Amino acid sequence: MSTDASPKSRRLLLILGALTVAAAVLAGVLYFTLYRPDQRVDDAVRATVTDTASQGAIALLTYKPDTVENDVGAAKERLTGEFLDYYTQFTTDVVVPAARESQVATQATVAASGPVEVAANTATVLLFVNQTTTSAAKPEPAVTATSITVELSKSGDNWLISGFDPVQSSG
After folding, report:
1. DSSP at 167
2. How far apart are CA 136 and CA 46, in angstroms?
């Protein structure tokens, strides 16, 4: 009585082994090409989007009563899409009048930042921002700390802010 596997079972084992290897290779290729799109960008791009988001946040959140219109105008040059439309409306209706009438001044600084997701034409950056606010009614500086996700879109050679959302705390 022979314990050798029949040629048919050996062939089946070889086919199953080859299919397993092919599936593993395909999974690896898909992981590094589709699932890991951040592999398509280098550290310089990550640094660029992080700096663009940080400088943009400072521009969006910093203004003085006597220069608010210029400050807002300079900030709008860093924006695109629906967020540009929203920011234009919000600053026209709320920020500029409040800054002028109540002498509101703000100064923002970025305490920490880091890319969350970076692809060829889009990026998301997480910022930890401190904003100091004064007004005629409250001349003593009030500091607010906020976490913000900044969405960026590439337009030509430039990265522009297309979304700017405070992170909601879960508590």
Report:
1. P
2. 40
φ, ψ of residue 139 to 5 degrees: the values are -70, -20
Q: Which long-range contacts (CB under 8 A, 24 or more apart) does 38-46 make?
A: 38/117, 38/118, 38/119, 40/119, 40/120, 41/118, 41/119, 41/120, 45/118, 45/123, 46/115, 46/118
Residue 2: its pLDDT value, please? 53
Largest CA distance in the chain: 101
Given a contact cutoff of 8 angstroms between Cβ atoms, the answer to whether 125 and 99 are in contact is no
List the one residue out of 123, 115, 133 whose CA is nearest residue 162. Answer: 123
Taking the CB of residue 60, how many other CB atoms lie within 10 A of it? 26
Q: What is the pTM of this model?
A: 0.76
pLDDT tens figures, 114-123: 999 999 899 9
Report how far residue 53's alpha carbon sits from residue 83's, in angstroms, rounded to the nearest whole number. Answer: 14
8-state DSSP, 39: G
| Contact between 133 and 119 (Cβ < 8 Å) | no
Q: Which CATH class is domain 41-166?
A: alpha beta
